[in-house]
Amino acid sequence: xxxxxxxxxxxxxxxxxxxxxxxxxxxxxxxxxxxxxxxxxxxxxxxxxxxxxxxxxxxxxxxxxxxxxxxxxxxxxxxxxxxxxxxxxxxxxxxxxxxxxxxxxxxxxxxxxxxxxxxxxxxxxxxxxxxxxxxxxxxxxxxxxxxxxxxxxxxxxxxxxxxxxxxxxxxxxxxxxxxxxxxxxxxxxxxxxxxxxxxxxxxxxxxxxxxxxxxxxxxxxxxxxxxxxxxxxxxxxxxxxxxxxxxxxxxxxxx
Length: 255
Fold this sequence. Notes:
- By secondary structure, the chain is mainly alpha-helical.
- It has one domain.
- The protein has 15 helices and no strands.
- It has helices at 10-15, 18-32, 39-44, 46-49, 51-67, 70-91, 97-118, 124-140, 150-163, 169-182, 184-197, 200-206, 215-226, 230-237, 243-249.
- α5 runs parallel beside α15 and α10 (169-182) packs across α11.
- The protein starts with 9 loop residues before the first helix and ends in a 6-residue tail after the last helix.
- The model has no long low-confidence stretch (mean pLDDT 87).
């Protein structure tokens, strides 16, 4: 059976882990709040209204692509493309090409950053493999002006970070919604994780001060994993009403 992502790929190893996936989206939530195309989220209203539900929905789509048989994965990608096209048609505008690339680049970058924070440093070949998988996704979505290799991606990623981010009213409102839906304590933890995850340019635009020695948050979690208490810690750090969605993220962990 052919899969969209090879069964032995590092991408599968990254995306089967609940904690790593949650870090990927914690970093992406911080950065995309700054993106100049963030107004597209407000057109549908779904993410600002319920960011956690939207998170779990997005994770479900991503894992379907990564773990499904190739034809089913391609059908999932095509469905995502159709959803975006429907929004564009409704608004009578096109989502900018650079905005699509920004999201794709975030998936690459935060896959690498999250795994390295929680597990180990990745080899350059593994980073190139992550790049290749997500470029394959981007090509299926007919995205334009994609980099041809990992080194070119690093250059373009930095250009996008410099050109496509600004802190505005949508940024502030999104973070207010994160706090509303997470509660003050969990929001505090989210901020600590984002501070250690995001690139320096994102950090400087979002955070004026560090609330806490952020590395302690990660070390506490690693210690809990060693004691096999990480599931207990997750249940404390994440809203109980999303217990089933959190369990669903980890359904591929034994693959």
